[in-house]
Amino acid sequence: MKVRNVSGIGEFHARLFSATEATAEGGTLFGALRKLTQLEDPRQLSENDTTMSGWSPWVEGEDDSLTPALAGLPA
Amino acid sequence: MRFEQIFEQIHGRLHAMPEVAAWADLRDLVARTAARRSTPVWEYPLLACRAVGGDEEAALPAAAAIYCSLAAIHLVDDLLDEDPRGTYRRLGAGRAANLALALQGAGHRLLDEAPAPAETRALLQASLARMAMATAYGQSLDSQEVGDEEGYWRVVAAKTPPLFGSALFLGAVAGGAPRALAERLEEVGGIIGRLVQVSDDLADAMQTPAGADWQRPGNNLAILYALTSEHGEREALARLVAQVADAGCLERAQRILLQCGAVSYCAFRLLELADQARARLAEIPLADPSPLTGLLDEHLRPLANLLRVAGVDSPETVLAG
Q1: How confident is the model at residue A62 (pLDDT cuts 50, 70, 90)?
Q2: Picking from A35-49, B147-161, B284-298, which range would have the lowest pLDDT averaged per residue?
Q3: 3 state DSSP class of B225
Q4: In whole angstroms, what is the distance from residue B144 CA to residue A13 CA?
Q5: Residue B207: CB partners within 8 Å, gap ≥ 6?
Q6: 3-state secondary structure of A21
Q7: Residue B34, SS3 per DSSP
Q8: Is B221 helix (H, G, I), strand (E, B) or coil?
Q9: CA B110 from chain center: how many Å?
């Protein structure tokens, strides 16, 4: 994997939206990243397993539907 | 070893402590642990142990100690973030903070059970203590809002890498690796910690209802990008930040994150960090690198899904350069 060096938000933003970096086909890294900017509905992300949080070990509140807690283990 | 088997081991070790057996809040907290899509950080010691050629049974005390540390950090993180889903909402701030103290102590007690010479156990204890101190400092930095990207990376470097670094260090030492090699794995863990933080930012910014990060927008890379880069909806987003409790406002704000390139930037940084981790890993002489290269692949899988949703035909090709 070769990620092209971009030093910060400003430079990345300029390159992402430049005609030379972002091809319509999405076959290059910046082309693919540009395609992300064309997504209309944010709900598409949560419905398609597109992010992974590494922090929370618990089922709490709204998360109760994700997976059952480990009931039945010896107390 | 599967999640349930590992957790049963951790659970058993914790419940062997008389305080845990007698403490309903603590038992209840442990019982609420659940399997997630991703490998939990408390399994990292087992992966590192296998990677250095050790028997993963030897790393179970380290896994249990990291479980306790993560639980303690998470309890306090929710308090600092005022996360509406935090355990403190159920128990109250004082009881939640006291549980965190207990878990930190439990982690050290569990490490003392490692089947290793006293000198090795001292190394493990020192790593866990360093991690706890460094993480608390990082959390303190994170409780103040940062306003620029340099500040963001400074806070991220202080907050998340110590836990992930220590998890790999402990596993490698428990597996019999020399300290110098374990320290190199600790560096890889630090990079994975940054990667997890960016992934966490993206998840928090895009979740519904609004995640806690909207309360300190400069500390979330996606929201920070959208508030600082040059695009036509920056002012609109600045107004929406305070209104994301409303579902319609949140959806408009999240649409701006997508369209201005903020989500793309997080994806770019995730790729960059994965690339760094792979390069470091390739330089370390390991008996079997596959548990750790597999871990990196796992971290990139949601990103491949993200690109697929965006219409990229073969995301794996893009991710592979």
Answers
A1: very low
A2: A35-49
A3: helix
A4: 26
A5: A46
A6: coil
A7: strand
A8: helix
A9: 21
Residues in chain A: 75
Q: Of B32, B203, B229, which has the smallest distance from its Cβ to A53's Cβ?
A: B203
Q: Burial code of B260-276, b = ≥16 C-beta within 10 A, e = fewer? A: bbbbbbbbbbbbbbbbb
What is the pTM assigned to this prediction?
0.89
Closest to A2 (Cβ–Cβ): which among B38, B260, B321?
A: B321
Among B202, B258, B268, select the one facing A6 at the smallest CB separation: B268
Q: Greater confidence, B48 or A61?
A: B48
Q: What is the DSSP letter of A56?
A: -
What does the pLDDT read at residue A60?
A: 44
- What does DSSP assign to residue B275? H
pLDDT-based confidence at residue A66 (cuts at 50, 70, 90): very low
| Rounded Cα gap, residues B10 and B34, in angstroms | 13
Over residues B234-241, the mean pLDDT reads: 96
N-term to C-term CA, chain A = 47
Q: Helix, strand, or coil here: B90?
A: helix
Cβ-defined contact of B202 to A60 (cutoff 8 Å) = no
Q: Which amino acid is at B311?
A: G
Amino acid at A28: T
Counting DSSP H helices and E strands in chain A, the numbers are: 3, 0
Are B87 and A60 in contact by the 8 Å Cβ rule? The answer is yes
Listed residue (B83, B264, B167) closest to A31, CA to CA: B264
Here the tokens at position B110 are: 């569990």
Cα of B10 to nearest chain A Cα, Å: 11
Of the candidates B60, B7, B114, B55, the one whose C-alpha atom is nearest the C-alpha of residue B288 is B55
